Amino acid sequence: MISLQQLNALDQAEFTRLLGGIYEHSPWVASRTWPQRPFASLAHLQAAMAGVLDAASADERLGVIRAHPELSGKAAVRSDLTADSRSEQKGAGLDQCSPEEFVQLQEGNRAYGEKFGFPFIIAVKGLGRQDIIAALQRRCANGLDAEIAEAVTQIQRIAGFRLGEKIGG
Known about the structure:
By secondary structure, the chain is mostly helical.
């Protein structure tokens, strides 16, 4: 963990290196946030990072969405997830799916990806496997604009959890 005071003192390269994974494979969010230092609180930092994503172009936001792995998808099977994603999925028990749950997730991921063109994203912290499967099935009924908005909302929640694990008092 790093303190907020230490974080505020970092140069842009080190700030970006440290926070570059807060938004999956999208270090540009951290890089664009750096000039807004100093951050008075973790909430201020989180809001600044969220504001960078909100101000980004539609293509950039879609890039952040598409950078996320499927839950229990190919990257998880290949053990090719970022450390944060692996920890988050494990914390939700997705590494312990029954064969039936695994099939439900695989089929849901396929249907969702075909419909929307990006992976299903949900902040899994505090959710169980059945909660996640139910949300996947429910959200497949959304329209594209609603689902882009929901994906960004979920990404912002994930970012908040990740920041909380990296930044201390």
